[in-house]
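=== RUN LOG ===
request id: a7f3
mode: sequence -> structure
chains: 1
length: 168
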Amino acid sequence: MQIRHKASILQLDDIPLDIGYASECVELKNTAHESFRVGGQNGVTQLILTAPFIDDALIAQLGELDALLSLNALGAITKALVVATDKHDDPKLEEWQFGIDAGEAFGDYYGVRLNNSELSKTLFVISKDGAVFYHEILNDLDSLFSLDKALVKIAAAQNCYTGKGCHG
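=== RESULT ===
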C-alpha cells in the first residue's frame, strides 16, 4: 500500500491486520519506560491510533474524538496513541496512553510500519473480544481520520459483544 506525505511516497512494510482478525496483545513503553499492553482480548473496546508524527491537527482530532465519545455516552474504552520511537514527545492527552513501539512488535504484527521505520497514520477499533472491528489506514499522512464513521464503528463494537460467546 502506498502512503503519501507531501512530495514523498512511502510503502507499508507488510499487509495490515484486517477487520475480523484477532488482534495481538502487544507490550509498549511509555516515556518513563514503563510497560503497558494494547490489543488482544481484555473485555473492553480499545482505540489504538498510530502516527508517524504528532502535530496540532492530530491532537485536535483526538480532542474531537474524545468529545464525540463523551456526547454519545461511549465510555469504558481504552485509548492509546502509538509511535515508532522515543524521538516523539508525549502530547500528554487526558485519557490517552502514549506508547512507544520500542520492540517493533506492534508495527510488525498490525502491519502498519512504513518503509522509513515510522508507523502509518491508522485508527484501529478492537472489540471487547479482541477482534479488529474497524480500521482506517490513511493513504495521505496529512489527511484527517473520518471520525463520524469511526464513531459509528465504535458504538457498534461497544454493543455487539455480550460476553456469552457465539452460542449464548
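=== NOTES ===
The longest strand covers residues 77-83.
The mean pLDDT is 91.
=== END ===
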